[in-house]
């Protein structure tokens, strides 16, 4: 017979593992330390293996056994799945119309979606929305793990994602971003080779150059910055230059210039990504239809 795993025990296990101690976990759970120890012991009995190494009196840290290390991500996955279902049911019990989860790349999240979502929710005031913004890879991962109903992203190498459908909506050109007083700022367009003599900062969107003749630039860049806020701050400080799609260029910046990359001419396509074998919830499908009606 399979063991009946209790969510409370799984939470206790995760807290002990992450906080490196039973005492800290007990404080977080608002329980006594013996109660947490008993909870963990019962969980270990159900699983048939110890989750934590025997405690060394000389150290306050609690370490996972190899079995515990393997079980930790599984426990987190079970907790997350439980919490998503509990959250959805709570919203329904409160007579709300549902819960919509979506993720988007930051450029669309900041420049396009605010207006669209504002208009959409005006007709559904009780709809609860969870909105995540991250790079394309992270958005695709959230779609795959069903953390979100659908994503808005660029789909690198579409043939490598047979489990997903992609509906292209927005297109923007790749360009070079540099300070306004930089030598490149006076150009109207640029060839990729002209970037070699300047300090190049790569970022999450640099992958768009992979399949173009500008791909050597990826190995030429001295720095990689994943966070857009940090990237803009470094550019404004004159640290170097980077390539960005037009939608990702901070139009509010008074210190930076965007020069189109003419050779090669690289275009990013952004659209709606969802799983092929999973129907969207009614709120999610309604939002997809709304976006398509407003933009395509």
TrEMBL record:
Per the UniProt record, the lineage of the source organism begins with: Bacteria, Pseudomonadati, Pseudomonadota, Gammaproteobacteria, Oceanospirillales
Protein name, UniProt field: LysR family transcriptional regulator
Please report the organism this UniProt entry assigns to the protein.
Neptunomonas concharum
Looking up PROSITE patterns in the UniProt record yields: HTH_LYSR
Q: Which UniProt keywords apply?
A: DNA-binding, Transcription, Transcription regulation
Q: Which Pfam families match?
A: HTH_1, LysR_substrate
Domain (HTH lysR-type) spans: 5-62
Its domain of life reads Bacteria
Q: Which Gene3D superfamilies match?
A: Periplasmic binding protein-like II, Winged helix-like DNA-binding domain superfamily/Winged helix DNA-binding domain
Coiled coil residues, start to end: none
Q: Mind listing the GO molecular function terms for this protein?
A: DNA binding; DNA-binding transcription factor activity
- Among its keywords, does the record have DNA-binding? yes
- What does the sequence similarity comment in the record state about its family? Belongs to the LysR transcriptional regulatory family.
Q: Give me the Gene Ontology terms describing cellular component.
A: cytosol
